[in-house]
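Hey team,

Sharing the Putative signal peptidase I run so nobody has to redo it. Sequence (61 residues) first:
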Amino acid sequence: MLQAADYVQVHDEKLLVNGEIQNENYILEPFTYEMEPILIPEGYIFVMGDNCNNNFDSHDW
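Structure output:
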């Protein structure tokens, strides 16, 4: 679970939290986009759907 002060990033078709690759065996296809590291501020949440390439979620907003 992501928390305040965590960094989230998508790089080389992988999701990274605080620089560690996350094992997401439920995702059917690799990420087709890159996302620079984002710091989650206190009092905020970061939402990503499991259909990662077709969701309109926090990586878009």
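The chain has no helices and four strands.

Ping me if you want the raw files.
A.
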